[in-house]
Amino acid sequence: MALREQSYLILLALSEGPLHGYGVIKTVRELSEERVRLGAGTLYGALDRLAADGLVAVVGEEVVGGRHRRYYDLTGHGREVLTEETARLSRLAATARRRLDPGLGLET
């Protein structure tokens, strides 16, 4: 199952444990080296789709300073999909390196 970049980064952000929305936004920005900046609408739309696909789940809720926080985490299936997609991207990157520098051989 190939993932869109934003979905991949959201799953990767959750790979170390549950986060609330702002935590996901901040972690995705860090993982992407400031290239991907999710707005709240984009984030929650993506989280809803990922939850519908069984890749993430709401694992807690709280109110902090009058604001509602919902915490998300990977499901077992979500971790499997993230692992498979990471392996696919690694193979693709290895192929790209060989094509860009044929002298590299198979040792990368």
UniProtKB/TrEMBL annotation:
List the Pfam families hit by this protein, alphabetically: PadR
**So which domain of life are we looking at?**
Bacteria
* SUPFAM superfamilies in UniProt: Winged helix' DNA-binding domain
> What region holds the Transcription regulator PadR N-terminal domain?
10-84
PANTHER family according to UniProt: PADR-FAMILY TRANSCRIPTIONAL REGULATOR (PTHR33169:SF13)
Protein name per the record: PadR family transcriptional regulator
Q: Which organism is it from?
A: Streptosporangium carneum
